[in-house]
Amino acid sequence: MLTLFTIKNCDTCRKARQALDRRGLPYQVHDLREDGLSAPLLEHILHRVPVMTLLNTRSTTWRNLPDAEKQDVDANSARELMLAHPTLLKRPLLDTGDDILVGYREGDYDKL
Questions:
Q1: 83 within a domain of the structure (yes/no)
Q2: 108 is a domain residue
Q3: Of 4, 10, 41, 93, which is the active-site residue?
């Protein structure tokens, strides 16, 4: 079964859900704020998505971090930041079982 990682108030996440619903694809939703992000789950995602691709430096969460935490971010510090602040992950993330699709644009799920 597909897993869609979202946050409730994200417009792009809503569009991704609508796209899956239109195609009649079964999926489960994992809300990053409500359901959280464990270290094993993050490692599962990072096994398929490079850490710096996953880090959302355009998010409100990122902008609200102290400058000292944002400077010289590397793979290890990015992991720590994402575990402490799950909304730093780019979203939506769609785990197909074989791959993880990052973000959503119209047509991205056509091949599913």
A1: yes
A2: no
A3: 10
Q: Check if 13 is active-site.
A: no
For the segment 44-84, what is each residue's pLDDT rounded down to a tens digit? 999 999 999 999 999 999 999 999 999 999 999 999 999 99
Residue 42 domain flag: yes
Q: Is 30 left (phi over 0), alpha (psi -120 to 50) or beta?
A: beta
pTM of the predicted model, to two decimals? 0.92
Q: What is the pLDDT confidence band of residue 37, given thresholds at 50, 70 and 90?
A: very high
**Is there a domain that residue 6 lies in?**
yes
Q: Which helix (H) or strand (E) holds 102?
A: strand 100-102
- Provide the domain count of the chain: 1
Residue 58 sits in a domain whose CATH number is 3.40.30.10
Contact 14, 107 (CB under 8 A): no
